[in-house]
Amino acid sequence: MEKAVALLEQAFADWGEGRAQNQPRRRMRMPSGAVLHSLAGANEKYFGTKVYSTHAKHGAWFHFLLYDAQTGRPLALFDANWLGQIRTGAASGVATKWLAREDASTVAVLGSGFQAASQLEAVRAVRKVDRAFVWSRTRAKAEAFANTHNAVVCESANEAVAQAGIVITMTSAKDPLFDDSAITPGTHINAAGSNIANRAEVPAALVHRADVVAVDSIEQARIEAGDLLLADIDWSRVVEMKDRPVRSNASAITLFKSIGLGLEDVAAAAHVYEAIIAGR
To answer: How far apart are alpha carbons 197 and 208 in whole angstroms?
Structure first.
């Protein structure tokens, strides 16, 4: 995870300096409920695309194709489920490194799935976490997560976030999980669970109250960041990660709306290719 955070930090810097590209996600929906998703990115050495299919009843299948940027030659095909989990966590790790208070030592995790685990791992990679709290709609899942990841189970989302300097949301919720009033000054929020335009995990009032609102990509966020779209945000307020958002003061509330980029997949896959596949 520490390496993945560094890779994405460099990828955002490269994009900001014109050495990388990103193509927003596209979706094709079938009458059966199946959906085909695709997103792409490039840096100076590699380009690639992630293609994945999902079905609410049958699951999801992720693949990533990596190519040589100079010749167009195909290099590798990845089963990209773990790759996506790690890079999604790492994006929140970068945002936490840049935007959370240096002394933030308590974390609330809303959600208890495998993506929530990598989100917590990423925060722990960039901050010294003394206590972690977890809430999930299913108590048994919250308890299992707490036992595995050394966290304390909370009875409500409000209870969890009220105790935290860093908040992670990684759920499939359609509506906000907690009240705006539960977030105290100085809190950093990683809203990472939704990339659907009609879903929001955080309340609109919090989006407007946040001093800094950061996203992976404004172009893509305007298509699928429901947390911001449903809040009818003023997009001139939103900062892209490639422009290196910063915290203004200790009491500022900062929000990172994570949606996931093809460029992030390229950065992670290229490292795996160079470290393992090309080195055989």
So the answer is: 17
